[in-house]
User: Fold this.
Amino acid sequence: MIALILGAQLGSTFNFTELAGDAIRNLVPARKLALVPKLAPAATGMVTVAQFCAARGADLPLPVMSRIGRKAAALSRADGLLIGRAMEQFGEVNTYDADVLALAFDAIQAAQ
Assistant:
């Protein structure tokens, strides 16, 4: 019956695991989960913490970048600014206005 559904001749052999993998790859687009090595703002001027740090040449550990993101989120909410979303190495992350990230970056660096 499967041969009839696939339109193959009777007695043909198939690698069903390979066929299923091909079908899933065609349904689900591949995601590129890598950090952007340079500042690449969207049309709105929003950037991620990782993009901002890379543009400044700062190689910071994840906990520090997380603190910068939380500070940028707090500043954005206080000023009524939008917080965007983008796909990064860590999955979906927030994007912020570059000026807000500069303030958050300076505040976190001064606190260390």
